[in-house]
């Protein structure tokens, strides 16, 4: 029985990057042996075990065979006679197919170290084309390492294009797609993720709303916005809202209702988490108003604030403002003034205290009406003071 550190931990150590997660492969052992040593099985159909003390994952060396469509269409074979090389050859990229033994010696049967030096993302074997999820994974790795000079090998891009044309991408579950898309948006160069998907024809399958931007070169604006989001370390909901907003404006430049329907459709397609869905819709509907906040009269400003639960969810309003700033990054000081105007108006509304109205005898439905009335007055007073 031999234990090897594999995959990302080896890759990132060689790149001089922080290692955040360690995966292990066990060669020459059976599931029964692992359990006898105290390792806990993760699932009945997958040969992965949790270390009894550290909780890290240890997988038996295994081979796999394509048995159906999509990411889950594989049959695994794990046995003590499966070698480390057998296990590594099933991996996606050569830079992820390296291992270290218990003495720290590198095992590199597929020239991953050479591809690290050449800054090349290259598939390990033709079996790459059996797993459609690898299209998204390679594009994500390109987004992660683009700033280090990495690019996708031409021959790997050919296999990715074959997968995009095969119909296999449609077999991926929404959850798996969203996991890769969301992780890619959080990489240092999310625009590279979009470009690689476009280069291999996968963007038209997965995000046709974004793909259409390339027809009129509007993708360049999207790329600038996504790069700005990454530079400012914006969280996922803001990056997702920016992606959908720019895409919707490119596809449907004039009708807000149609843009919102497009945003809703993409959110539904990938079962996007509620926080990301809500912010994307709010930005899609109200970004234009936020961009000219100082021009809004008191009634319109109050109506805008009503759509944001600024009392119980102040962070969502801040994310909305941040997303608007990312989208209109070329505005500079003028946009900052609009953002300050919105924040000050929200502060004026928050300054209205419920306990004051309760002390005046309001309760029940009357209290709700009085609170709304006083908040509207606060916005009117604020707007008058800014004229």
Task: Describe this protein's structure.
The strands form 3 sheets. Strands 3-4-5-2-1-8-9 form a 7-stranded mixed beta sheet. The protein has a two-stranded antiparallel sheet with strand order 6-7. A two-stranded parallel ribbon has the order 10-11. The chain is built from 19 helices and 11 strands. Helix content is 55%, strand content 11%. GO terms for molecular function: ATP binding; CCA tRNA nucleotidyltransferase activity; CCACCA tRNA nucleotidyltransferase activity; magnesium ion binding; tRNA binding.
Give a concise summary.
It is built from 19 helices and eleven strands. With 387 residues, the protein is an alpha+beta fold. The protein has a domain at 1-118: Beta Polymerase, domain 2.
Layout of helices and strands, plus pairs?
Layout: E1 2-6, H1 8-15, E2 23-27, H2 31-36, E3 40-43, E4 46-50, E5 57-60, E6 62-66, E7 74-78, H3 84-88, E8 99-100, E9 106-107, H4 112-118, E10 120-121, H5 133-145, E11 151-152, H6 154-166, H7 174-185, H8 190-199, H9 203-206, H10 208-211, H11 219-231, H12 236-251, H13 256-269, H14 274-291, H15 298-306, H16 314-327, H17 333-350, H18 354-359, H19 364-385
Domain tRNA nucleotidyltransferase/poly(A) polymerase RNA and SrmB- binding: 149-211
InterPro entries: CCA_bact (IPR012006), NT_sf (IPR043519), PolA_pol_head_dom (IPR002646), PolyA_RNA-bd (IPR032828), tRNA_CCA-adding_enzyme (IPR050124)
Enzyme class: transferase
């Amino acid at each position: 029985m031999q234990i090897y550190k594999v995959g990302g931990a080896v890759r990132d150590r060689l790149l001089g990057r922080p290692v955040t997660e360690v995966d292990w492969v066990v060669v020459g052992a059976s599931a029964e042996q692992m359990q006898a040593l105290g390792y806990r099985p993760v699932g009945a159909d997958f040969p992965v075990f949790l270390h009894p003390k550290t909780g890290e994952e240890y997988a038996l060396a295994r081979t796999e065979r394509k048995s159906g469509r999509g990411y889950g269409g594989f049959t695994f074979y794990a046995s003590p006679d499966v070698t480390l090389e057998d296990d590594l050859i099933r991996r996606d990229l050569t830079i992820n197919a390296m291992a270290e033994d218990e003495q720290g010696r590198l095992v590199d049967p597929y020239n991953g170290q050479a591809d690290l030096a050449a800054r090349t993302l290259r598939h390990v074997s033709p079996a790459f084309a059996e797993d459609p999820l690898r299209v998204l994974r390679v594009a994500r790795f390109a987004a992660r390492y683009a700033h280090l000079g990495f690019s996708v090998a031409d021959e790997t891009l050919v296999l990715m294009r074959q997968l995009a044309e095969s119909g296999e991408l449609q077999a991926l579950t929404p959850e798996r797609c969203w996991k890769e898309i969301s992780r890619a948006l959080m990489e240092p160069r999310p625009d590279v993720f979009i470009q690689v998907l476009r280069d291999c024809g996968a963007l038209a399958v997965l995000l046709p709303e974004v793909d259409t931007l390339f027809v009129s070169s509007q993708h360049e604006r999207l790329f600038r916005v996504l790069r700005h989001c990454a530079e400012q370390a914006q969280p996922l909901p803001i990056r997702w809202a920016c992606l959908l907003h720019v895409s919707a404006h490119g596809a449907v430049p004039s009708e807000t209702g149609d843009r919102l329907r497009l945003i809703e459709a993409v959110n539904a397609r990938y079962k996007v988490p509620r926080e990301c869905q809500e912010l994307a819709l709010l930005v899609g509907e109200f970004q234009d108003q936020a961009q000219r906040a100082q021009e809004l009269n008191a009634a319109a400003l109050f109506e805008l604030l009503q759509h944001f639960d600024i009392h119980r969810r102040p962070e969502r309003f801040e994310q909305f403002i941040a997303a608007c700033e990312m989208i209109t990054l070329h505005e500079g000081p003028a946009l900052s003034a609009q953002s300050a105007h919105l924040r000050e108006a929200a502060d004026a509304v928050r300054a209205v205290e419920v306990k004051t109205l309760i002390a005046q005898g309001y309760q029940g439905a009357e209290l709700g009406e009085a609170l709304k009335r006083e908040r509207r007055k606060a916005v009117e007073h604020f707007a008058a003071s800014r004229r």
